[in-house]
């Protein structure tokens, strides 16, 4: 490891920093989504809609109090604001949840882009080093030339490995966010429909 760091030149240090940062982010996001999965309560989501059809608002508030399922939280906020602006309240709550879900995603996105660029920078500096040796000593000592070439190759490989290794978890976490948004929108729309039907029935009476 340290031999590769030495051969790769100074560019290997920012690449090492990128790898440490992205590893920490991946573990943190994996822990976060594991918690989301544990807190998911799909039966309660459907039960809330059934209770809403019966106008059991007090029971809904009791059942949703303290629940950390993101979809349930959106429904809970919507029901609390049912006499005001339910859609706006649910939208605001969903945005706050998505913001927490998207935390550190820009860091991963940046490293996916920056790591290969740092690798290319290392390639350029390595080739420049090799040409400087050639211009100074010719081919008197081929080992000096291969040192620059090794630097170029090592940094390129390191940058690509970091970027490729980051793409997969990034896309996975991004798909989880999109999936969560879909369910929040789906249940929020169902709740709005239920409440509109109830209001229509009250007006008819």
- What class would the helix/strand composition place it in? mainly alpha
**CA-based gyration radius:** 27 Å
Order of helices and strands: HHHHHHHH
What composes the largest sheet?
A: none
> How many beta-strand elements?
0
**Strand percentage, roughly?**
under 5%
Low-pLDDT ranges: none
Q: What is the multimeric organization of the chains shown? A: single chain
Tally of individual helices: 8
Give your account of this protein's structure.
With 205 residues, the protein is mostly helical. The chain has one domain (2-200). 87% of the residues lie in helices and 0% in strands. Helix 4 packs antiparallel against helix 5 (70-80). The radius of gyration is 27 Å and the shape is rod-shaped. The mean pLDDT is 85.
Describe the structure concisely.
The chain is mostly helical and 205 residues long. Helices cover 87% and strands 0% of the residues.
Notable characteristics:
205 residues, mainly alpha, 8 helices
Write the layout of secondary structure elements.
Layout: H1 2-8, H2 12-39, H3 42-53, H4 57-64, H5 70-80, H6 86-101, H7 105-137, H8 142-204
